[in-house]
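Students often ask why inverse folding is considered easier than folding. One informal answer: many sequences map to the same fold, so there is more than one right answer. In these notes we will look at a single instance of the problem. The structure comes first.
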C-alpha cells in the first residue's frame, strides 16, 4: 500500500511539473529528447530571458530613477540567459545562434573577452552570420578596438545595410561616451574615429538603404 501511495504521489508531482511553466527546461521535460532538441529548449529559454530583459531595459530608459532597482535584476537575468545559451551549446556545439546570443549576454555584462570568444565561435561555424558580426563589433568598441569595428562595418555595409546602420549608431554612442569619459582611448583615436564616422554618415545619406535585412535586431 505504501508503494502504491508513493507511486501515486510521484505521478501527481510529475503531472504538476509537466503542466507548470518554468523559465528553463527541467530534468523531467528533458528526458527522452535528442541533444539537438535539448539544445533548442535551452536556446528558447535564453531567448525568453532576453525578451524579458528588453522590457526592463525599456522601462529603465523611460524611468532612469529606477536604475537601483532594475539594473541588478537585468544583470541577474543576463547571467541566467548566458547560462541557458552555454547549456544549449553543450548539447549542440554547432548551434551558432546560441554562441551569438551567448556573446550578446556576456557583452551586456561587460565581459568583453568572453563575449568575443563566443562570437568568434559563432562565426567559425557560420562565417556570414550578420548579427554576430555586428554584435562582435560592438564588443570591439567596448575594448576600444576601433580598426576591427570599422572593418566589421565595411563588411556589413556591403551585405546587410540594416545591421551596418545599427553598428553606426553604436559607434556614435561610443563617441558620445568617450567624449565625457575616454575610458582608455586616446584623444587622437577619438578624433580620428569621429571623422571616420562622419564620413560614413555622409555616404549613408547619399546612398540610402541599398539592401535590407530579414533578421530581427535588438533595440537595446
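Output (designed amino acids):
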Amino acid at each position: 500500500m505504501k508503494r502504491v501511495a508513493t507511486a501515486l504521489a510521484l505521478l501527481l508531482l510529475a503531472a504538476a511539473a509537466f503542466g507548470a511553466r518554468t523559465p528553463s527546461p527541467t530534468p523531467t521535460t528533458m528526458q527522452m529528447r535528442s541533444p539537438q532538441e535539448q539544445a533548442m529548449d535551452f536556446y528558447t529559454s535564453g531567448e525568453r530571458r532576453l525578451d524579458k530583459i528588453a522590457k526592463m531595459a525599456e522601462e529603465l530608459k523611460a524611468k532612469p530613477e529606477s536604475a537601483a532597482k532594475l539594473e541588478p535584476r537585468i544583470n541577474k537575468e543576463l547571467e541566467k540567459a548566458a547560462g541557458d545559451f552555454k547549456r544549449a551549446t553543450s548539447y549542440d556545439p554547432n548551434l551558432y545562434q546560441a554562441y551569438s546570443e551567448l556573446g550578446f549576454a556576456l557583452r551586456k555584462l561587460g565581459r568583453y573577452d568572453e563575449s568575443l570568444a563566443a562570437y568568434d565561435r559563432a562565426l567559425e561555424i557560420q562565417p556570414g552570420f550578420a548579427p554576430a558580426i555586428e554584435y562582435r563589433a560592438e564588443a570591439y568598441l567596448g575594448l576600444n578596438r576601433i580598426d576591427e569595428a570599422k572593418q566589421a562595418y565595411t563588411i556589413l555595409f556591403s551585405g546587410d545595410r540594416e545591421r551596418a546602420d545599427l553598428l553606426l549608431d553604436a559607434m556614435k554612442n561610443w563617441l558620445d561616451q568617450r567624449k565625457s569619459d575616454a575610458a582608455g582611448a586616446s584623444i587622437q583615436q577619438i578624433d580620428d574615429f569621429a571623422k571616420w564616422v562622419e564620413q560614413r554618415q555622409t555616404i549613408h545619406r547619399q546612398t540610402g538603404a541599398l539592401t535590407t535585412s530579414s533578421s530581427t535586431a535588438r533595440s537595446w
